[in-house]
């Protein structure tokens, strides 16, 4: 089976974490987010993947290479992918696609059974099938209504709250017949959700939905990234390759620590969880609550970090306090006794002098 991974986007809502890495390369339990979808595709029987790259494509191509480390053959399609939109960019590789294939976003964390989605599509003899997840607030997504046969009868991208006629949303994972791309004009900007699906409905072509109940999170913003991290500790999101089963339940006993290689940690006080990359040094009496700290970070004595994401190569001085919802960009230095208020985004390369206070607007 063949698949296409959409990996060209910029991940603007996760800035400053996406200044030096595209969203698919943001570490999640110390592996790029895209690795989980690659593994899921391989487990579903995919043997060849075309990755549509764009923003900071070298980072993705260096890491995944020809795919041999991941048990799959990987090819890249670069060029004008962002300009062409999701469907337009996929059309560029469709001449290399032999049969029914899967298209997946590079940045969703899910336990969807991709094989079951594929088989459902085959059974329905659909031209395209969209995996549909149920969410509370659908306004950030494409929403669909299905009939009793799960044929999609209405679809709307990012509805206004008053237009939100359904809680079933496009999960960014599709199955297509190659012929669906006959509807996509060559070399023009054409998007699945904005153009192709509405066109299929207009022409009364068989577009199906596959509602699923398994875990799904598209990690749109820092808060959903931390939520997905917590969901691993709670056993809601399974990452089979990490044996996260063993982490389940730890939260009830104070805090869970998941750390990478060569970390030096002095008995920190953890509430909820702390996920650390490689080479993280943590001094005495540091408090960490529900936070993720990337690689090569030093946190000095007495610092307190609450519900934050700390980028790579960051230095956090003595007694620094970082409040809930903040993100510290890569290569930043926060000097001693500085306080970063709630929901503040500190850009990459920042240098914040001693005893400063940075508050949100
Ligand atoms: C134009 C487009 O493709 N929109 C998709 C896409 O939204 P983005 O905001 O572009 O990431 O992914 C969503 C799932 O993550 C899906 O619900 C939506 O329909």
Automatic annotation (TrEMBL):
* Localisation per UniProt entry: Cytoplasm, Cytosol
Transmembrane region(s): none
Superkingdom of origin = Archaea
Residues annotated as domain Nucleotidyl transferase: 3-231
Q: Give every EIF2B subunit epsilon/gamma LbH domain span.
A: 260-339
- Please tell me where this protein is predominantly located: cytoplasm
| Cross-referenced InterPro entries | LbH_EIF2B3/5, Mannose-1P_guanyltransferase, NTP_transferase_dom, Nucleotide-diphossugar_trans, Trimer_LpxA-like_sf
Q: Does the keyword Disulfide bond apply?
A: no
- Which of UniProt's keywords are assigned here? Cytoplasm, Initiation factor, Protein biosynthesis
Q: Work out whether the entry's keyword set contains Protein biosynthesis.
A: yes
PANTHER family hit by this protein: SUGAR-1-PHOSPHATE GUANYL TRANSFERASE
Task: Return the protein name.
Answer: Bifunctional protein GlmU
